[in-house]
Amino acid sequence: MITVNNAENHLKNKIGEDTDDIKKVWETFKDFCKEPVEGGEDKEILFQCGVYDFTGEELFHLDFVRQFTVYEENECSRMEQLRCEFSFKPTEELSKLEIGEWSMDYDDIDDFLNHIETLQEFKIPFNLKPIKSEIYQEEV
Fold first, then answer.
1. Interatomic CA distance for residues 102 and 66, integer angstroms
2. pTM here?
């Protein structure tokens, strides 16, 4: 059983060493989004991208995020996000792209994932090689 505490390791093990292969990470992430996770409400998926200065350098970031809401004694105790993050040098084309889409705005997870795959914000960077990729989980 996947838990919030082992979700990051579970996803990393499924992806293997190819963490900079966006296509492999995306396909694995899509499957992972449908797996139940014990200990957290887990239906919140975020796709986002844009040029940001998170590291002191402007980079184009592409993120696939699964958010967990952890409850203790029927009250929300914390939220955690498991992120698949790709960074690119911001080209003129990438600099025009920015979006944030949540799965909760769609009827079901398949509708959301299918919609994401139709977006230019997804298609354009999807075929590029990132300068950095990282999979990590953090409390938000």
1. 10
2. 0.90
